[in-house]
Amino acid sequence: MRANKLDGYLGFTTFGESHGPAMGLVIEDVKPGISFPYDEIKTALFARKGGKNFTATSRNEEDKFEVLSGVFQGKTTGMPICIVIFNKNHQSKDYENIANIFRPGHADFSYFKKFKIYDYRGGGRSSGRETISRVAASEMVNHLLKGIELIAYPIRIGKFIPNKISYSFLKTNYLKWGDENNYDELIRYLEKIKAEKDSVGSIIRFEIRNVPSGLGDPVFEKLEANIAKAILSIGSVKGIQFGAGFSLGKMKGSEANDEIKDGKFLTNNNGGILGGISTGQTIVFDFVSKPVPSIGKVQNTIDIEGENREIKITGRHDLVLTSRIIPVAIAMIKLVLSDAISYQKLIKNEKNTLNDFREQLEKIDEDILIAIARRNEISKQIGKFKKENKIGIVDSKRETEILNLLKNKALNLKINPKIISNIWKEIFEESKRQQ
Hints:
- The protein has helices spanning 38-48, 108-115, 131-138, 167-170, 183-195, 223-232, 253-256, 322-348, 354-388, 396-412, 417-434, and strands at 5-6, 12-16, 22-27, 65-69, 71-72, 75-76, 81-86, 149-157, 202-209, 237-242, 260-261, 264-265, 273-274, 277-278, 283-289, 299-302, 308-311.
- By secondary structure, it is an alpha+beta fold.
- The protein has two domains: 2-352, Chorismate synthase AroC (Chorismate synthase, AroC fold), CATH 3.60.150.10; 365-434, Chorismate mutase (Chorismate Mutase Domain, subunit A, Up-down Bundle), CATH 1.20.59.10.
- Strands 1-2-3-7-4 form a five-stranded antiparallel sheet, covered by helices on one side. A four-stranded antiparallel sheet has the order 8-9-15-10, with helices on one face.
- The protein is globular, with a radius of gyration of 25 Å.
């Protein structure tokens, strides 16, 4: 399924389930001769792991990883890299009493409706355990992000908000809380929530400092659009806003516009991005993580037969995701920025090597192959439809119309129409074989 693959500067596919033997990823497009970041990956995986404080799940995985291919003597070989992180501390028996019962707030119901099957042992692919592969992958792009500083911290945990942000203090506690004055009160509040067998959500503020201007592209590849997709792909995230966010809806233009004087912006209501392209200001956005849905309170639900049931979830679960979601968000932003920076390098034609050009061509070739594969799948469906409705496979008139249209487009794009004609004749023949 294409949904398990992330394309971009670092194209990779992730695999594995929460209670399966292992999690992992395959990275296909890596330049040879790069030092493999063993220590950086270890540090990043430790930052997101559970079992370190009372707000996180007590599932204490070692998160040791093995590199099965693509690395020799500490350097990348240019071949696909396969990284595996084995699951050692899962307890599937915790879920046996709720097998075939949908957990409220989880993806059980929607997965079952889509696939007609779901992994009740911790949610399978929908589990937060899936994010470990993303974190491992993100450490492969650090060389592109030199000088850029990524800072993330909560501006709300449940009912608590910091009255001030001390960047030095947030480095001293696992919640990354910035207000020393109400930190102890926050801990007592969270202990009370845990005693009630409940959970709370949080809002995280993210700052990307020292960002060069010019990152991102117009219309469909806007920087904030790609950031939003990356952050919203994290399981518990339900919303995101940039700069002044929804407060812009109550402002006047004279209040919202970021005026410029003496070459500097006077405000940052737009969060460091205008027209989908970075301005050089600090990029600022907030995202909301919903309360962890696995709670010990009795809740109403249904089973796979549609019968009403009550459910009480046991096992080891997070109280609030703050300390564990921040490393995942940082990983996703690294991947987005590496894409934007590498593409900006192409636009400016700065220090492109032969390997850079070859890598760009390889990615285009891969996109073409994927498009052909999708076309073949549709051709199979068309063939089935034609057989069911007793329609002939060959439609020469339509082929001629498509060819003429494509050759005209080729002329506009300054491509030799004869080349296009030859390519599409082969594609048509393959389409007939698929039908």
